[in-house]
Amino acid sequence: MRWFSPSRRCGSNVTGVLACGLLSALLLPLRAVAGETSADYFIHSLPGQPDGPLLKMHAGYGTPLQCHIEVDPSTNGNLFFWHFQNRHIANKQRTVIWLNGGPGCSSMDGALIEVGPYRLKDDAHLKYNPGSWDEFANLLFVDQPVGTGFSYVNSDSYLHDLDEMAAHFVIFLEKFFAMFPEYMHDDIYLSGESYAGQHIPYIAQAILNRNNENPDHIWNIKGLLIGNGWISPLHQYNAYLPYSYKRGLVQGGSEIATRLEAQQSICLSILSKRVAGGNLTIDEPQCEAVLTSILSETSKWTGDVSECVNMYDVRLKDTYPSCGMNWPPDLADVTPYLRRPAVLEALHVNPDKRTGWQECSGPVSGAFKARNSKPAIELLPGLLEKMPILLFSGDQDLICNYMGTEDLIHNMEWNGGKGFETSPGTWAPRQSWTFEGEPAGIYQEARNLTYVLFYNSSHMVPFDYPRRTRDMLDRFIGVDIASIGGTPADSRIDGEKGLETSVGGHPNSTAAEEAERQRLQKATWDAYYKSGEIALVVVAIAAGIWGWCVYRDRRRRGGYIGVLGGSRPRFRGGRVAAREQPDSRGMRLERFRNKHVGRDVEAGDFDESELDDLNAETSRYDGDMERERYSVGGASSDEEDLGRGKANETATRRVER
Ligand SMILES: *[C@@H]1O[C@H](CO)[C@@H](O)[C@H](O)[C@H]1NC(C)=O
Ligand SMILES: *[C@@H]1O[C@H](CO)[C@@H](O)[C@H](O)[C@H]1NC(C)=O
Ligand SMILES: *[C@@H]1O[C@H](CO)[C@@H](O)[C@H](O)[C@H]1NC(C)=O
Ligand SMILES: *[C@@H]1O[C@H](CO)[C@@H](O)[C@H](O)[C@H]1NC(C)=O
User: Fold this and answer.
1) Are residues 93 and 170 in the same domain?
2) Is residue 135 part of a domain?
3) Which residue of 53, 166, 293, 579 has the fewest C-beta atoms within 10 A of its own C-beta?
């Protein structure tokens, strides 16, 4: 069953282009798109899904007119999203947005390797992630900036700076909430990893600015979580060598160390000039060279291959010059999975996206130099006045290592203090964190900033420790499990406690709860049956007394009507009011269903040429299967694959964060 028609996309259809232009021009996107199209995003099935009911998901940008989440009509700029509805609502409705870094790396990493509910079992089958972040929060992954992952844009219109990126994101959210108003009033958290340490503060600031301009329609942005974030180049470039010494990658005093120290001094002198000139940038080639030199200087030939340390997890090795770009191993399954025609169709990936999914896009990264953007660290103090921020770090990561993160915190001034000094001479304690009896890491907190160090963890902490990161998330966003169905009771039958009914422990938690509920119900009824006779007698007596009272009352007042009297309408009114919320939700669902019926009818009138179109598109995806994963900056391109076999890779290398 197909749910969208490739022939009705903007760009191939004049009416579509016109309609898109008009819609985009409307100042009230809410009215322009609301209710018209959200059903087109509904995911009806997902190839390789695990047993059990499909999670409730929406994805894509496919609408009949393809006037989807287009952020920049002049450049054909489109952002792709994948949304998972929460499995439980705890004390509040929440939406967590997850972004991967790069710049130019797809947030499908987050969806299928890190915090999303599914992981790949092989390149065709999914399994559940037991630490998925959609347990108590709606979870939204967005491929951004334009051109990243399934998102696309005309090849001459990649973004260059963080303010453009944030502006696009706000437009995206505006349209997303217009399409899905049920999430508009959620508490919103921005989360992500690595270079998203730049994206997230910029987007948060843009949202606050937007809220100031729309005080009647604010988005409840409540906090930020950044994992192994690239936030402060000044402190983080400076941490490469100290971290390498500490981890024994480089021996102090060695010849290699001398050469690396020399490169480090060049980097430092440039950074200090830039600090003085007020033109500090996010990406400084002479400082990037410190990292790439560490990787090349410490690489070793073993047999026919040169091996280097994995810059995302220094416990591991990779082939030179990838040095971690081939990691994590799940990518070997994620890439072919996300190129399957059936998956593209399920996720409503627009055929306008002509190339197969790549984890990281060279052209996006190459264009996004952020030359005119100040590093995000400069936004953090202002943001910390408005919301809590959590920075977490896997301790085995080199590229955005924890020493740099601790250094940036130590040197940052916010909310009337510097670093984790809570009062002169007193430091916020480093509290040890254990998870299920194992030492998991360290928590430190002051004045709205929380720092969490994860032991034995790579750059992708949720990849290594999904359940620990969910625990971290749930603490941070204040999930109150007790509010799900009230206070848990210590219920035993014949002294037996029965199944653990904790929510969220594993993907079957809801099923387990339901099983337990039915078991208890059955036990209760069994008990009733046993004492049935006694109960009958009690009921009979009670009925007799009640009947007598009614009879007396009637005689006194002259009828039932008088008993209920004027209170009746109020009573009814109350009921209606109480039901209003479920009702309006129900109506939305109803509209959904009607849309589906509508689409069914439409699905019947595809003509042959449309199917041919689809085949042509899918073969383009297949043709792209051979494409290598981006590993060298500006090297591979969506349109012209310049990258293969390019010489002198290290010199032009841009690493992905
Ligand atoms: C940074 O700014 C300083 C002072 O404005 C200037 O001297 C220097 O050339 C600038 N550096 C770069 C690399 O543009
Ligand atoms: C911390 O954030 C809250 C909002 O969550 C804000 O009201 C408060 O003022 C902030 N704390 C400080 C010390 O600024
Ligand atoms: C994890 O990290 C802790 C603290 O660094 C260390 O004591 C422990 O040995 C590590 N465990 C493993 C399995 O590596
Ligand atoms: C979840 O439930 C299904 C069906 O009841 C069962 O096959 C599966 O093994 C369960 N998985 C876990 C992790 O408990």
Assistant:
1) yes
2) yes
3) 53
